[in-house]
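Next up, a chain.

===
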Amino acid sequence: MRDLVAGLLGDERFTTACAERDMGTVFRLLNHRGLSTRRIAAAVDVTQGRLYDYMNGKSRVEKLSLFEQIADAFHIPGHLLGLARRSWEPAIAPGEGARTQACAEMPSSGDGKGDLAAVDLFRAADRQSGGGRLYDAVVRHLRDQVAPRLVSPGGSGRHAFAAAAALTEMAGWMAHDSGHDDLAGRHFGRALPLARVSGDTLLAANITASSSHLALQIGDAVTAAHWARVGLDIAVHGPPAPALNARLHTMHARALAASRQHTPAARSLVHAHTALNETSRAQHPWLSPFDEAALAGEEALAWSDLRRFDRALAHAEAAVSLRDEHRARSLALAHVTVATVHVRRGDLDAAVHAGLPLLHTSPALASVRVARELDALGQTLRPHRAYRPVREYLERSDAARSARMVLLADLLTPRST
């Protein structure tokens, strides 16, 4: 089977299917090369009926463990599926990592100023007004301005792949902000191979942090921990990046906390603080900053999962005080965390007081993610509705929600890439 897959590595259909994690197409291509469906099913330990569902597009492979099993069964290099290097893959020769990094740092044939300017504009607009209605603009820029350069002989080489990776990751975040997490996952899955092709180690590690965050959002702590560890392993081979390392350690801590692993989670948070306190002159153009406010907000969620509510509250309040008032979405999420922690501590008056700023969250903020967090806060408060201040707050909150849902209706419809 190894020789069979080796013959497919030059087939664009195969590499594209791997990048998109479209295992149905991968299985069909293996079958067309003479591998029986019985052998394919046995190799990945699924029934033939389930295999036919994958091949016919009736269902998709979703579990990380199955992607790993497929990679190992057919000797598909891990990076093609967005996985860590597999144990059977040849080790990197001494000096090879340094040569790869040197290539990444060489000036590209294009200066990339247009792509970087677009990223900065998208990022600034996203922080203030949410990513929901920016998604189409990002995908259009990818399609019209970046994608043609990936296949053009006169394209900008590695820079074009880095731009494609960064913007594809950004599209994933905007899909997530629109409430389309499956679509976000597909974007992150496509971004990682692009980053690897570009040779940009830090960008690849950053994308794994995004995948870890998404896994946490959908309640998959095991996958979240996996992606954080993969990112930390990747980042070791790049130049110093304290903020990125802090983000990866924080995601690892969040995943461990969600699994109620108190001591390892606390240790990862210490590593995050240590990394963020380090200094580096290097500024990576594609990576969104990870600062003290972001760390405080994530740490509050970790301590809340560990039921250490006093610590969670201190960090949540720090996130509010540190966050710039122009970061509308981040500020709203921080206020939600403060109010939710107060409820869990049993202080309803403090929860209502903390929730008051949320009543003034702009209904035009194009973030389904924020809307869902506000709904979750309402559900947390609802069992205490008999208490008059809570009841009055919920009445005002429900009125604000009605206005929000009207303006977000277009974002809640299905999307395709």
The chain has a mean pLDDT of 84. Residues 64 and 223 are 7 Å apart (CA to CA). The chain has four domains: 2-86, 108-199, 200-290, 291-417.
